[in-house]
Amino acid sequence: MPDLDPEEFRRLGHRYIDWVADHRAGLESRPVRDDVEPGSVRRRFPTEAAEEPQGLDALLERVDEVVVPADTRWQHPGFHAFFPANASLTSLLGEIVAGGLGPQGMLWSTSPACTEVEQALTDQLARALGLGEAFTHPGGGGGSIQDSASSAALVALLAALHRTSGGRWRETGVTGDERVYVTAETHSSLAKAVRVAGLGERGLRVVGFAPGTRTMDPHALAAMLEADASQGLVPAMVCATVGTTGTGAVDPVREIATTAAPYGAWVHVDAAWAGVAALCPEFRYLVDGVELVDSFCTDAHKWLLTAFDASLLWVRDAAALPSALSLTPAYLRDSASDSGAVVDYRDWQVPLGRRFRAMKIWAVLHGQGLQGLRAHLRGHVALADELARRIRAHPMLQLAAEPSLSLLCLRVRTGGAQLEDQAADEAADDRATRSLLAEVNASGRVFLSHTQIDGRFVIRVAFGATTTTRRHLDELWTIITDPVPPTTLR
Ligand SMILES: *Cc1c(COP(=O)(O)O)cnc(C)c1O
């Protein structure tokens, strides 16, 4: 038999689940990151694949030898770098069911359950986030689960190009006159989408910040749209970011949408990391103005307890993506699709095939309830607020950006030895901040990343791992304020 029989799967499955449970239970006794030499993992593999089967008990031993010592532990409670990637155990149970069922959800008819669970859950989440009925399937729009916010931005752009071309894009492709509006804080996936869509770098227009902010200036946007339109260029899409990757800045969605409206540009909201926080009434401001936009994206796979990949994309017009992307070869034609009564999610994405991603989101919603999700989000926001309070009170540290939800940026303040020379002071602070980051990460107990604000080096702290608690904040604070020598853990 070319596969395991179900009884052997049951036996091995128990072992594999035990392995995952032990790994998670033991995470804190390992460093957040291993010191890995490039190529050292690959070298452990023979150049040729084995001819003989080797048994799956033995594979776990190989994983222990080869994989476990060469990892960056995103699920470690001391992981505060980049953004979280919550591979919750709750969601892994849903993954097992999804894989066990093993459907291909490309059309409604290729797995009605795969499609309709996704519709039902994205409708529930649209309501829970306060997006409004217009973004639900019964409301004429609808949600889908994409592999990533990057893909979501790409398909939103394709729908935008189609719409702003008056429906000609499908036939003629781009003209080269289309323009997409972002800021310097917009995620690089938008620039990539512009490139993939064939607009070239000239297709990307970077709008300035409002004075004293890192958010899009609606006046600058208005001027740019007007100048471009008057030259015959086509404003195709404006991307507003809710929670930028660098500092968590929130663009003024309402003003941006109002400004873009007269030009017919598609307005996409990229809320990949922060959007999920709108589940909490106190963070509903994050979706202010969303009733004016065309699409809204937030990742369940960052901070919403769902293992990668699960990016939620809602559109106001359910026909927008299929109009741009639908292609029906004879072998995929069927009566359910022809009836127009169902959604075929292959028309909402670039690939044809699709996984039953909704299953893991269902496990999370079922297992946590909205209450559990809110408590998870609020816990991390409280940690960032507390860390910010301590930084403000510390003589040698400074907030480089105020907390945005569970994210903040800090730098070292060396004290301005050369008060009359601001550039020299800033360079000294940057050097001290770099070396603090290196020392803190060398502890192995925590992992922080960095970014630049106005050309200056700052440390980013993004709380959000599923098991990070107050105790881990205290440990982080101890390490930041009294760097310890590199851990002996490894
Ligand atoms: C993380 C992030 C992305 C990219 O997310 P993927 O789902 O990994 O593609 C896009 N935009 C913002 C604002 C992000 O924080």
User: Globular, elongated, flat, extended or rod-shaped: what is the shape?
Assistant: globular
Q: Please give the number of β-strands.
A: 11
Work out the helix count.
15
Distance separating the two termini = 42 Å
Helix content: 40-55%
CATH superfamily of the largest domain: Type I PLP-dependent aspartate aminotransferase-like (Major domain)
CATH class of the largest domain: Alpha Beta
Biggest beta sheet summary:
7 strands, mixed
Strand content: 5-15%
**CATH topology (level 3) name of the largest domain:** Aspartate Aminotransferase, domain 2
Low-confidence stretches: 484-490
Which molecules are bound besides the chains?
Answer: pyridoxal-5'-phosphate
Order of strands side by side in the largest beta sheet? 1-7-6-5-4-2-3
Number of domains: 2
CATH architecture of the largest domain: 3-Layer(aba) Sandwich
Task: Please state the average pLDDT score.
Answer: 96
SS-derived structural category? alpha/beta
Helix-strand sequence? HHHHEHHEHEHEHEEHEHHHEEHEEH
List the keywords:
490 residues, alpha/beta, Aspartate Aminotransferase, domain 1, binds pyridoxal-5'-phosphate, 4-stranded antiparallel beta sheet, disordered C terminus
